[in-house]
User: Fold this.
Amino acid sequence: MRAPFDALLATSPASSCDRIDGRRAVAVPLVGGLLAALGASALGILAALVGVLVLTVVAILALGNVPSTESGHPLLAATELVFYAAAGAFGWWRLRALRPDAFRRPTARDLRILALGIAALVGAQVLLIWQLAVFHQGGHVQSGFEDFDVVGHSRAVTALGVGLTVIAMVGFGPLIEEIVFRGLLFGALASRLGVLGGAAISAVLFGAVHGDPVLFPWLVIVGLVNAFAYAASGNLAVPVVLHALTNAVGATILIETSLHAAR
Assistant:
């Protein structure tokens, strides 16, 4: 017998998940998916708030001063990992309950879809470069990373900042964000609105939460590409890899720029 929480999260008309329009590959119950996505986000934010307080106190006691809170430095990078760990644990638990087959071993078809997704994202990157050039914003940095700096007062601190940034941006970030935005949110919306409607709304929300009006169109395109890749493959590992590759490019540029400025 289902626990009350599981029963609530599973409520949705069964027929809405079975229409032959592609949604069957990604659909999760509407109410369950939306509540799980919101729950993962809320839990991650709460854990991050507690985490940054605890980490700050520990750093003050250990170092004798207040650590830097700039993006790229160990404190903020560690706080991001706390956020992703909490949100990811809850999101993974709910996704496994609502759609156990969301992750599976990649097939030849998955690899072809991955290749098409990479090509689409390269095209989106070209459009982004054109957009920034046309509007004279070639030096624009994504919101939240304007003061990004991994260089600390010692090589050990710098190496820690680089390592934590890579783990957060290229590892945990893509995995957890895809679980929440594509596995849960997109899957829930697609069960009622179909793949196109679910992809559009989840992509707009994905772009909006990054809080960057300049990059918003590009982020929406990235969200659409990842959603369609998931719908076409039925394997969440495909958009996770696409997301990781996208973030890897950004992380490389941010880290290299920071290290170069310090030379």
